[in-house]
Design a protein that fits this description.
The complex is a heterodimer of chains A (about 375) and B (about 120). Chain A is an alpha+beta fold and about 375 residues long. Chain A has 9 helices and 7 strands. Chain A folds into 2 domains: about 90 residues; about 180 residues, Histidine kinase-like ATPase, C-terminal domain (Heat Shock Protein 90, 2-Layer Sandwich), CATH 3.30.565.10. Chain B has 6 helices and 5 strands, in the order E-H-H-E-H-E-H-E-H-E-H. In chain B, helix 3 packs parallel to helix 4. The longest helix of chain B has 12 residues. Chain B has one domain: Response regulator (Rossmann fold), CATH 3.40.50.2300. With about 120 residues, chain B is of the alpha/beta class. The chains are: A alpha+beta (about 375), B alpha/beta (about 120).
Chain lengths: ~375, ~120
């Protein structure tokens, strides 16, 4: 309920009552002044003698009442108007997301074409270097020892170069994939997933998107990854979304604290992965402003946000994240925090949903 | 095996020649190139289709797209196998290609080991 003074029609209602009472009180005062204490009988007699007085007495009330009805209608319209404006803002946001999605798809296509040449010419070079190496070794007698060693050394370096080029082209490809995945909003498909790599990719995405907007934003990232976590054939798309969401929130909190405290504050992001028996644990902790205790319970509620309205935040991020972790991965997500000091998100996902299907675990194989 | 590669980027020729060098030297593969859908159709109608097994085609090309080419090829040379190789990763293009009769759909950057496997598995 809004306080009564927030709506115009309440003023009008009180105005109407006052408008009705005021002439009566005024009349009583006037009568008292001219002929002493007043009794009801006297008033009725006066009213009977001059019927016009009824109208004059009650008119302000009726006028006020009409004004009240009109005012109430205006308030209702204002409410409706706000709903329409909100819906419109939502549509604009959706439209923007859709066009960003389209743009990303276009950019991805333009990047993947040259990337195809980078990767495959590098791979082709590796093959050719191997052949060349073999040819030289087969004709060792044709070279003096020094030249022979030098040639092999050169070829070794060349092969390393080609492999580095290929490796880095794969990195670019993964970044494009992650970018598309996040804007496309699609379900994605099952892929061999290294949780540590997935976390790394999303840290980079979150950090660099903040860096792009706030060039002074600087972050110390401490990583503690458990390398015994198996590579899992899973649909990592949604998990990536959850991680990005939490990491974005962390960057938001750290950026706010840093812009308030400037050099007195060293933003720190700690990420940790751990395999605890059959459970995968991911911990993301920031030393930002933390979450006050009174709202800690609400942060997973849909539409709850502490970010300023109009900043494009729907308040759905954590609520969707919780749904994803609980429903899609049968896990849990918890928050620990101390106001002003830190926020720590703990995600726990049972690994046995993939271990059941042993072919999903590709421990030996690299992605 | 005779293969026609259709892509508007000229470097594709050097790339495929390098990556299929061993197979080409061993006489297992014979590569031909067309740099547009129109050129590919011209090649096919000039007798190129005779002992051709497979077409590898890009989608995004000026004028005739790979999907249009696919439709015409499947219409006129139904026995020819067509493999679409594109940088489009969306399901829309994939479904369209499969519906038009594409025998497979690969995305760039190409993994030539996978491509070779698919080619030799197909025939």
């Amino acid at each position: 309920m809004k306080p009564f003074y927030k709506e115009a029609h309440n003023y009008l209602l009180w105005g109407a009552l006052f408008g009705c009472l005021f002439p009566i009180i005024a009349m009583l005062i006037e009568l008292y002044a001219s002929s002493g204490p007043v009794n009801i009988q006297q008033i009725i007699t006066i009213q009977k003698e001059t019927p016009l007085l009824w109208i004059i007495d009650t008119a302000p009330f009726f006028l006020g009442f009409f004004a009240f009805l009109i005012g109430r209608q205006i308030d209702r319209l204002k409410g409706k108007n706000q709903e329409i404006l909100d819906a419109q803002a939502q549509l604009v946001l959706q439209e923007q997301m859709a066009s960003i999605g389209k743009m990303t798809a276009g950019i991805a296509h333009e990047i993947k074409n040259p990337l195809n040449f980078v990767r495959n010419f590098a791979e082709g070079s590796t093959e050719m270097i191997e052949d060349l190496e073999e040819e030289i070794k087969n004709n060792q007698s044709g070279f003096d020892q020094e030249t022979f060693t030098y040639l092999l050394e050169l070829l070794g370096d060349l092969r390393q170069n080609a492999e580095d080029i290929k490796h880095n082209s794969e990195r670019v490809n993964r970044i494009v994939f992650t970018l598309m995945d996040h804007t496309r909003g699609s379900k994605g498909s099952e892929q061999a997933t290294d949780i540590n790599v997935l976390l790394d990719e999303n840290i980079n995405l979150a950090y660099h998107s903040y860096r792009a907007n706030y060039s002074s934003f600087n972050l110390d990232i401490q990583k503690d990854y458990d390398s015994s976590i198996p590579i899992i054939k899973m649909n990592s798309h949604s998990l990536g979304r959850v991680l990005l969401n939490i990491l974005n929130n962390a960057c938001y909190a750290l950026n706010q604290k840093q812009s308030d405290l400037k050099n007195d504050f060293d933003p720190l992001l700690q990420v940790k992965t751990k395999k605890d028996r059959d459970q995968l644990i991911i911990i993301i902790e920031d030393n930002g402003y933390g979450i006050p205790e009174n709202i800690r319970k609400k942060i997973f509620d849909p539409f709850f946000t502490t970010k300023p309205t109009g900043s494009g935040n729907s308040g759905l991020g954590l609520s969707i994240s919780k749904d994803i972790i609980m429903q899609e991965y049968e896990g849990s997500i918890e928050v620990e925090s101390e106001s002003g000091l830190f926020t720590k998100f703990i995600i726990k996902i049972p690994l046995n949903q993939w271990i059941k299907n042993t072919s999903s675990l590709l421990t030996a194989e690299k992605i | 095996m005779k293969i026609l590669v259709v892509d508007d980027e000229k470097s594709v020729q050097r790339l495929y020649q390098q990556r299929f060098r061993k197979e080409a030297r061993a006489g297992k593969v014979e590569l031909h190139f067309a740099f547009s859908g129109e050129e590919a159709l011209h090649f096919l109608s000039e007798g190129g289709a005779d002992d051709l097994t497979l077409i590898l085609s890009d989608i995004n090309m000026p004028k005739m797209s790979g999907l249009e080419l696919l439709k015409i090829v499947k219409d006129q040379y139904p026995e020819l196998k067509v493999l679409i190789i594109t940088a489009y990763v969306d399901n829309n293009n994939r479904n369209q290609a499969i519906n038009l009769g594409a025998n497979d759909y690969l995305t760039k950057p190409i993994d030539f080991n996978v491509l070779k496997e698919k080619i030799f598995h197909m025939v």
